[in-house]
Amino acid sequence: MRLLVDRERCLGAGRCVLTDPDLFDQDEDDGRVLLLTGPDEEPEVTAAVRRAVQFCPTGALTLSDD
Ligand code: SF4
């Protein structure tokens, strides 16, 4: 299971940051989501990540099976 982030769909609502501030942040310029991981690092799909995906109002966060 892999977390996919579509920054074009993100409206900067910030719910993901409230759900898991250790993984999600917002860009200071446009407010869109950023992942606090290294460039080649896959984030672990934790329960908090699943909640962030569930509560993102724009569908910018999804989980993939591949
Ligand atoms: S919850 Fe969704 S729309 Fe809001 S900042 Fe996070 S990814 Fe963007």
UniProtKB/TrEMBL annotation:
GO molecular function ontology, one term from the record: electron transfer activity
Cofactor(s) required for function per UniProt: [3Fe-4S] cluster
Residue ranges of domain 4Fe-4S ferredoxin-type in the record: 1-29
Keywords attached to this entry: 3Fe-4S, Electron transport, Iron, Iron-sulfur, Metal-binding, Transport
Annotated InterPro entries: 3Fe4S_ferredoxin, 4Fe4S_Fe-S-bd, Fe-S_cluster_ET
SUPFAM superfamilies: 4Fe-4S ferredoxins
A matching Pfam family: Fer4_15
Signal in keyword set: no
Annotated function: Ferredoxins are iron-sulfur proteins that transfer electrons in a wide variety of metabolic reactions.
Protein name (database record): Ferredoxin
